[in-house]
Amino acid sequence: MSVPQARFTELLADIEPSQTTKTRASGGHNGIREHLRTQSSFEDRYVTSFLSGSYARSTSIRPRTTADGVERPDVDIIVVTNFSTSDRPDDVLKEVCRALEDGDNGYGVERINKRSVRVETWQAEMDIVPVVSTSNGYMIPDRDTGTWKFTNPPVHTSWSAEQNQKFDGRFKPLVKLFKWWRRINPSGRRPKGFILEVLVSRHAPTAEAHYGEAFAQLLTNIYNEYAGLAANNQKPFLADPADPSNDILGKVSVAQWKDFIEKVRVYADIARRAQDAVDMEEATRQWRRVFGDRFKPTAKAANYGGFAAAAPVAAGYTFPNAMAAPANKPRGFA
Prior knowledge:
The protein is of the alpha+beta class. It has ten helices and nine strands.
């Protein structure tokens, strides 16, 4: 007896970033972008900027609550520059760091990462990624290797939108359910993020309308596809939609992948038990094992006249890529 569709749409609404979180993040990233655009030592380097990552693709879920009780989203900002790939990546990232810190309204930099500069404010945690434009994408500096790597975040954003159309509006909600399941039932730090989106695109049923059944099939399909490799201490090559030669599992160790596949196996069984349960209370209990206490308890099946087919859930919030107007430059949160 399937749990009503409403329980899944209620969970999706609950794990969506709040409007307060979205507003703060929007102010945060627009402030950073405007600062770099107008900063005297960097304005000649700055070409344009846009958002990347799950917020740009509308596949983010509510951030974890920090120690001070605030939900700060993680936002990726791509800054297109006129650097050259002949410039040393370490020098490029340090120059971005200085530009962020300079000026009366400078930002406190948390750290310089491998390919980005991290800034944390009361509004958001932001990774600023300098890139150089090419004919078919962008080059990103890698300070660990001292080289520039190809990337194309806009293709990821358009690819995600195309997947959502293919799934009749259910792709992004399924990604959010998958991400929430990973948070509630972690097996380690990786895989995460965009990898989960690619797995949903490859292994979730496109025509299944009920989110519970679609999620159960997703886990089963992933396990069936990769269990053999995992048993042989191997992981698959998972092609990047923006660059098929790039394996997006490159940073995931075999041990991490095996732990993930084992977690998928366990919860594929639980999700199937939830879908096949003849008692509504038992089905709900199993789904709460999958998604945690935010999955609402369900009254007995006798109180329901069936469930509605899946309506596409709002894709979520996509931040504007237009620059913030200089007159409205937000400040005071660094």
